[in-house]
Amino acid sequence: MSHEGIHGTDGGASGFGAPVGTHGVDGIDAHTASLPPGIMANPPADPVTRAIPPAAEQDPRPEEHAEPSADTAGEVLRGVPEHTGKRPPTYPPHPLRPPSVRGGDDFAAFSPSVLLDGVTVERLTVRAASVRGDSHNWEGTCRQDAMTVTRIGPPEAEMLLLAVADGVGSAKYSHIGSYRATRQAAVHLDREAEGIHAALCARDATELSAIANKAIAGAGAELREGWERTARHENRPYADGDYATTLHVLLVPTDARIRDRVVFSVGDGGLFVLRESHWHHGNPAGDGVIDTRTEALPHAYSTVKSTLLRTAPGEVLLLGTDGITNPLTQKDPEFAQRLAHAWGGAAPSLSDFLWQAQTRAKSYDDDRTVVCVWEEA
Question: How many other β-carbons are positioned within 10 Å of the β-carbon of residue 311?
């Protein structure tokens, strides 16, 4: 439903920092020809002819149905993301057109389709990805999900703060709401870090709930004030609902002796724990009824739900928006089993994690944001 490429340097038009004309096209071809066999999966066409295959010789099938090709070393290229079920989703499995600057929403126009992050602190390893959903790719709208991975608190009370937010689809500026909510919440929770750390050590769920409500309410008030000023400056009406977003924050002490963690939640999505190859709800299960009128910041919620849980090394924590938590709980267990197999061992590389997080399931085409935490034994 949210935010944040790789750019070259000004090292010359031919790349590698060479002045224009030093290598040129022929120089690159000579360099390519000198490489050992198998280094390049798709070597360029003959430099003399540079022929492009006629349309009749090109694979006419849509990209998502094309079979992956093997390089000369015998390894299979990944190709498009995998999918569960007998048939792939209808939408193309890759980003399409982004919003235009001419649309008047710079924040949307400059939001990348994918965010990828990761950290290792003490024995904790984090992998995080936020991916624009297939339906938003097709519509040319921006990602409305957001995430934040950071540390809060002083050294003696340090915690990893992992946050995900899902902007409500019908809200005009929810992509801004989700982006700002994860960051503002982090700022306010950092101010309360010593108190949160002490409450975790004491397993004081009541105090944790009180701190969460104070911090999130303070973050929401500051956000509302800023958005109101922006609306007045742009001479347009302001409404809280225009920025509506869910929010989930997981706090994990970096001190391995402290085994308790806490999740602060507003709205759908939430936490799962991978234990003995099965996913378990880390949030209260509720009544099992799906309600499309999810609670949301900055105003449409009654309280911040606080969930205290104790985990063991070897268990994997998954914090996500409903783009990942909904398919995890579908009746067909294939999706959940695939991710359990992929993430049940050691933490994957960043690129592998992104690939795995993009596993597709038919009818689940919303933005997907997922943060996982591994802990060494």
Answer: 17
